[in-house]
Amino acid sequence: MKFGLIGGALALTLGLAGPAFADIKIGASVSETGPASSLGDPEAKTLKLLVDEINAAGGVLGQKIKLVLYDDGGDPNKARTFATRLVEDDEVVAIVGGSTTGTTMSIISVVENAKIPFISLAGAIEIVDPVKPFVFKTPHTDRMACRKIFEDMKAKGFSKIALISGSDGFGASMRKQCLQVIGEFGITVLAEETYGPNDADMTPQLTNIRSKADVQAILNPGFGQGPAIVTRNYGQLGIKTPLYQSHGVASKSFIDLAGPASEGVRLPGTAVLVASLLPANDPQKPVVSAYTSAYQAKFNQPASTFGGYAHDGLRLLVDAIKRAGKAEPKAIRDALEGTKGFVGVTGTFNMAASDHLGLDLSAFRMLEIKGGNWALVQ
């Protein structure tokens, strides 16, 4: 009898202790390989780096994080399959990922049905507008990028431009958003061209644009290798009209791929790209410096905007779990929606029931490529 009581008490103790010290499973599906690897590779590296850092510091609520990471290769069908696996088999409490708009949109239906919080790393405004209860994101929207670019164009006196857009999900979405807001800045489009995600030469499109004598600037909404090809062809044709790119290419790999033709290109980007140039009193300076230094030391390569999106996605989740006091999907979702004053490397997040991004235009920095590197536009 005595042994039975002791054994029962021990079993009860172990039963209570087991779940309390179980790992917190966080899932991720990113495009580590494939056409969007310039986005997904630094995202995957960042997630692994941060999980190691967090666990080494004691984890969250006394529990370690277990990262369940899949590489969807930029394929929306694979992303949906992996999201389903994360929910049903891996039983994660939240998901970070969706390197592209296409993969993100395929994940959304899965997480909404399962009521699992999801933080997307893609740019299109459709991800969070209209607001979906369990879907959040860390990158600025494409509409915000359009506004930032048009502000700069207007300040430089440009009122007549040309568009050359990628036909992928991001490029098509940003083109649409730019056309919706461009009139607010007194700017008109005189010429418009598009290119496919597998196109290897955009010389014909750029030749058409060059023939329009009144064009004062060129804007290229797109991501991946397309904008680098556009920039190289732009240089090969000797076009002198100022070229603007989107935040979809805000990484050193774009400069390397585009080569000397990228000199003078302007685009909206995040503080990650100019960490050393930030003033000492910038509230993002400590966060950005810590992340970029750790990433450089671990991987021997500069941190990118896209890795920064993953940094903020995971840190936002950890912050939400801490404030919720438990790693339960609904509680995490509610805490995420209540995020206020969270300083990340992308900006300061202030979310609400009507805003599952929480960034304003001030989080963007207007950048210019000078001497093969990033410079702040003053």
TrEMBL record:
The keyword Ribosomal protein does not apply. Residues 24-358 form the Leucine-binding protein domain. InterPro entries: BCAA_transport, Leu-bd, Leu_Ile_Val-bd, Peripla_BP_I. One of its GO terms (biological process) is amino acid transport. Keywords: Amino-acid transport, Signal, Transport. Pfam families: Peripla_BP_6 (PF13458). Residues 1-22 form the signal peptide. The keyword Methyltransferase does not apply. Belongs to the leucine-binding protein family. This is Amino acid/amide ABC transporter substrate-binding protein, HAAT family.
